[in-house]
Amino acid sequence: MYDTRISRRAALLGAGAVAAWVSNPARAMLQAAAQLPVPAFVDGLVAKMTLAEKAGQLTLMPAAWSGGTATALNPATQGSSFDTQLDEVRQGSITGVFNGNGAEMARRMQTAAMTQSRLKIPLLFAADVIHGHRTIFPVPVGEAASFEPDLAERTARMASYEAAAAGIDWTFAPMVDIARDQRWGRTMEGAGEDVLLGNLIAEARVRGFQGKDLKANDAMLACAKHFAAYGAAEAGLDYSTVDVSERTLREVYLPPFKAALDAGVLSFMASFNEISGVPSTGNEWLMRKLLRDEWGFEGFVVSDYTGDMEMIDHGFAQDLREAAKLAFLAGVDMSMTSGFYRQHLPELVEAGEVPVARVDELVRKVLAMKARLGLFEDPFRRIDAKREKTRSRTKAATALSREAGRKSIVLLKNQGDLLPLPKSGKKIAIIGPFAAGQHDLNGPWVVYGDQANATDLASGVRAAVADKASVTVTPGSGVEEPLAGGIEAAVAAAQAADVVLLAIGESETMSGEAQSRAEIVMPAPQQALAEAVAATGKPIVVVLKNGRALALQGAVANAPAILVTWFLGTETGNAIADVLFGAYSPSARLPCSFPRSPGQQPYYYAHKQTGRPNPSDDKLEPYKAHYRGIPNKALYPFGHGLTYGVIEYTDLQAAPKLAWDGDLSVSVRVSNRGKRAAEEVVQLYIRDRVASVTRPVRELKAFRKLALAPGQSETVTFKLRRDLLLFIGRDDKPTVEPGTFDLWVAPSAEAEGVHTTFELVR
Ligand code: BGC
Questions:
Q1: Whose CA is nearest to atom 10 of ligand 1?
Q2: How many helices (H) and strands (E) does the chain have?
Q3: Domain limits of the chain?
C-alpha cells in the first residue's frame, strides 16, 4: 500500500501539480468546497437534545488520561482528572478530547459514551499529528524543502495510517501559515515563505490525511490552521498583532487555506492573532463572510485552544460570557479547552442573546461530521489496540521517514566538492551538541513519537562507514550554554581527524510554538565552538539543525560545506548519512530564505522593488533601499540548494507574446555536466513590470523536479496562461493586466538562470 520507492510520479509531481495549477488556477474561484451532507437522523437527534447537551457537542477538551499529556504539552489551562472527564462523557457535556493517549483511553471513553450517556452520541478524538504519529517525519518546513508535494501526501497518509489505529479521528494539521519572518518559531510547522509551494503542500497534506474516504479506519479529518495570517505576526513574535491589507491577505496568507479547502479539508482552526484590530476568533468577516459565504465552506471551525478566552486579554471582550458569545456569533463552531461554550451558551440562549437556531445549526454540523467519519455506524472503527500496535513503526513507515529525511536536506554550499565523503580512509570527528544522543531528533510538536526510537547522527554515520573506529564524537558545547573543557576537547578531536562534521544549530525547544527568537543566529557558545574548530584548518561540513532559516555568520558561514538538516525525525542519522556519503544526491531547496544578517527580518524573495532599488548587487549606493553594508538580498535565497551534479540551464525558448486567451510555451534545456547523478528543481519565476498595483520583484509560478544522470540533458517545458498572471487588484479582486513580464527559469529565486521577457496582449 505504501510505496516508498522514488517513483517517476514523485519525481514529476512538482510538474504535474503545478501544471494543473497553472492550467486552471481560476478553479480556486469556481470549485465547490467539500460537501458535508447532514444525514436524516441528525435532526431527530438534535430535537431530543437539551441545551446543555447541545453546548457539550460544541466543547472539545484536552484529554485527562495518563496525567494529561495534553495539558502538559500546552500548559495554559488546568487539567482535569480522567474520572471527571468520564463523568462529562456520561452527561454529554463534551464532544471529544484531544492529545490523549491512544486506543485504550479512546476505548474506555467511547464505551462510556455509547453505554452510559443519554443519547449515545459517539465521541470525537483529536490530536496534533503534525509530522508523524509514532514514526516521525521531518518537520513540515523541512519536508516542504523537498519540493515534492507527493512526498508530503505520502507522509501524511502514513501518519493517518498509524494515528487512526490509535483511535484518532481528527488531526490538527496541516498548518498552512505562510511564514515570511524567520524569527517566528512556527516557521517549522508550515511550508515556508512562498504561496505556490504553500498551496501545493497544503493540498497534498489534506489529501494524505483524509485519504479517499473519511470513514476508512486509516483516514483522519484534517484541519487547516491557523485561520488566518497567524504567520504575519509583527516582528515574528508569536501570538502578536497582525495588520495586513486585504490585498496581502488574499494574495499571500489566504491562498493555502483556499487550496486546503479545495482539496476537501472539512475543518479549520481559528488563529490566536488579531487582524487589523479584530481577533480571528471573533472575526465575523473572516469566519462567515469569507469562509462560508464566499468560499462555501461546509465544515466546522474550532477555536485554537483558549482563543475565545484570550479575547479578554486582547481587550475585545469584557468577560468570559461575552468572549463565548463573540466567538460563537462570529462563526467559531467549537470551543477548544476553555469550556466556555458549555459554560455560557445555555444562558446566552436563554437570555435571547444567541439564537437557538444557530446553536442547532452548529450541532447538526458537528454530528454530520461524526457521521462523515463513520462514528455513528461504528464508534470503535478507529479504536483497536491490536491494530494500534501492528501499524506502529512499520518497516514501510521507517523507510518513508528515511526517504523524506534525505529529500529534506538542503546542500547550501560545497566548496571543492568536499561532499560526498568517502566511506573509508578518512578519520571523521563529529563535533557539536547534536553529534550524538537521543535528543533533538524529532523536532517540535511531537505528541506521540518517542525520541528513543530515532537514529542520531553518530549512529547514522557509523552505520555508513567501513570502519566505525574512524569516527569520534565530541559535544564541544551545550546548545545555549558552554561546556566546561568542551572547546579544548573539540579542537583536539578536530586535530586528530581528517574531516569534521560540525553538528550545531537549534534545539527542538528553540523553534515551534511560542519560540520566537529576537535574533536568528547561532547561539554564542556554538559560534565560539565553530570558530575554534575552524581555526584548526580541518575541512568542516556544517550539519545544521534548525526549525527556521538562520543568519549564518563567521566560521559557520565560511565552512566549505553546509547542510541544512532541520529536524528529520525517526531516521535523522541515516538520512543525513545517505547524503554525507553520497548514497543520495541532495535534492532539496530552501523554502525560506537564509538572510545575510538577522536584522534583515522579515526577508522574503518576493518583496517589492521600492522606488529606490540599489542598481547593482556589487556596489551599494547611498539613498537606495538596503541596510548599511548589506545588499537587499538573501545569503541563500528561497529555492537555493545544490546537488552533487553540475547543472546548467541553456536554450530558453519562448515566444515574445502571450495572447489574451492563448498560451505560451516556455522551454529550457537543463543538463547535468557533472559526474554524479542529480535531481534538479527547475523553477519558473515571473515579474510583472508595470501594473496598477506594484508587483513583487519575482514570483514563483511553476517548478519541476527532475532526475538527471551524469551527462544527461532534458528539455523542460512549461505552459503559461493569462490566469497565471493574476494578482489582487485595487478593488481587492483578482485581475490581470496586459503588459511586459520578465521570465526566469532558474535554480533559485535570486539566481539569473536563463531570462527573457514576454508581452501579454489583449
Ligand atoms: C496551537 C495549535 C494546536 C493546539 C492544540 C495550540 O496552542 O496553536 O496549533 O493545535 O494548541 O494542541
A1: 172
A2: 24, 28
A3: 58-121, 408-600, 647-761
